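step 3/5: co-fold with 6-O-phosphono-beta-D-fructofuranose
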Amino acid sequence: MRVGVLTGGGDCPGLNAVIRAIVRKGVPEYGYSFLGFRDGWRGPLEAMAKPLDIPAVRGLLPRGGTILGSSRTNPFAVEGGVERIRRNLQNLGVDALIAIGGEDTLGVATKLHEIGVNVVGVPKTIDNDLAGTDYTFGFDTAVNIAMEAIDRLHTTAESHHRALIVEVMGRHAGWIALHAGMAGGANIILIPEVRFDIEQVCTWVESRFQLDYAPIIVVSEGAKPKEGQESLLNGEKDAFGHARLGGIGDWVGREIEARTGKEARTTVLGHVQRGGTPTARDRWLATRFGLHAIDAVHDGNWGQMAALRGTEIVMVPLAEATKELKLVDPTLYAEAEIFFG
Ligand code: F6P
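step 4/5: write tokens
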């Protein structure tokens, strides 16, 4: 059997570890050969692929990014795209595909499975907002990077008596902000799921200064004030219709300065959160996902995704995982509120 592998969407620490595990088990145990498709769904669409064998995956475990490249290509937004994919898979002799991605990449995989393509999914996103799995790989690395940044910003905030705002990724879900904010001892955490009141934020900022400390505010890029919308960087949308977000951290900083008279500065962590080597936990999770994905191919478990439930890796239907996003429960957010102000 020949198996195609692709990585789509935003890059994420652990992608290479998944690829390595798939090949390291698939070649000796099942006798499969592998083709790595370039740049997400663009690979099968344009027949851009290269062979993947054991020497090709040596040394990949600690390497960030993806050796296959990635893109946000949506074959369903390209005329005749799906037919081209079918034809290319046939011409290349690819019997099955393993798609490693988030809501968009796996959304495409779900639809391709419905029309008869043999596909298995692996959940990746630093945002951790994919349903069906307790965690996605990449999230732990992003949280640790953000936590370290918060730790470092505490000392500057206190030395200069400033409010420091840290804008983290999280388009629809505040998982990174919540985990990194709690781990880093943030005084305020703002997430997309719960609209915030800027007056309340300013009250917390002032009470923090009264205690002779300087506040750290962690804000997800998708957070929204009570009155108003999410902050867009520009009018651009990707092939899946997502707008580019950015600017909420600056807005919060400006409002704090205007309303409290205290100095406020914003740090936008951006792609630093997605870069570099994965944590041990992400390497472990990515490796286990890869091993179970190739087993699923062997078992003909088409239309399924490897998922973490507790400590077990189980297979869940792609359709279930991509139906809706996994958002932060308000009760979980309420736990963090005890530290606000
Ligand atoms: O999907 C993960 C993510 O990092 C989001 O948190 C963020 O909004 C988006 O990707 C940014 O994507 P890009 O790097 O394509 O601008």
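step 5/5: annotate
The chain has a mean pLDDT of 97.
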